[in-house]
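queue> holo job accepted (NAP)
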Amino acid sequence: MSAKLIKGTEIREQILEEITAEVAEIKEKYGKVPGLVTILVGENPASISYVTLKIKTAHRVGFHEIQDTQSVDISEDDLLALIDKYNNDDSINGILVQLPLPKQINEKKILNAIDPDKDVDGFHPINVGRLMIGGDEVKFPPCTPAGIQEMIVRAGVETKGAEVVVVGRSNIVGKPIANMMLQKGVGANSTVTVVHTGTKDLAGHCKRADILIVAAGVPGLVKPEWIKPGACVIDVGVNRVGEKISEKTGKKIAILKGDVDFDAAKEIAGSITPVPGGVGPMTITMLMLNTLRAIKFKLGIN
Ligand code: NAP
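queue> job finished
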């Protein structure tokens, strides 16, 4: 039997509608809307397309949005001064710096200069610490892991007591999602194992998973025989494996593959995310949710 598809594209629409409604309520009651600034340095085409999508989505949900584009040769001091300006701007609740940054700039220094209460990406060490503590301490869960958890919850998958296996231990996906799933709370309370290139029996661990979250960046790494029948499989991997001509636009587009052998896995799993159209659309959605959280924290709304 074929697994239930967990579609990020559909969940995104639900969440964006919820955000739009909340933004309208806040506007009516407090006369304010969430403000999001995206700082783009240089003209990297991939960065421009991410930023454009972020701005478009922010606009759609009714945010005040600013795209601040800086020249590729901006100095580190000038970029720090710009961050300071937005840290002190009351109309801005979320600050995003699009990565990668040019070589003359120390990325870590820039990200750490963002006010942790405006760090809607959730990468500042203070927010990483808050996530580790869990519960009420958490302000901005990082967007991709937050999207993964939201998909699991909205798909109705039981997490309490579930064996969760996370493939990958990056700071942006593997470690934070593992940490989130082990917290005592709704959509979590799981028993978590994290596997990586140092793991001895990758297949053996994966086979035990009720919820298998794969973020390795290796196309087709997870074989169908590694999947427990009925498991929930979240494929975070986005791997460019070639190019094709889009039927819609006639332009060249990338052929994307996940880290899981999807066609075979969907015959064994209980539920599974596709690539593309699975976790991908959730990241920007959760960024919007974090920006909404930021203004709510500021206004003291629970
Ligand atoms: P990353 O920083 O490269 O980390 C990959 C992790 O997977 C590492 O911990 C690595 O182990 C582990 N790994 C790699 N090959 C493995 C193997 N053969 N067996 C076991 N473990 C292996 O990657 P990332 O940034 O977390 O991203 C992972 C994937 O998710 C990528 O395809 C990326 O494009 C995608 N992604 C998607 C979204 C989205 O959809 N919104 C967001 C972020 C990332 P070691 O630590 O031992 O090296």
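queue> Residues 144, 167-170, 172-174, 195-198, 202, 215-218, 221, 236-239, 279-280, 283 surround NAP (CB under 6 Å).
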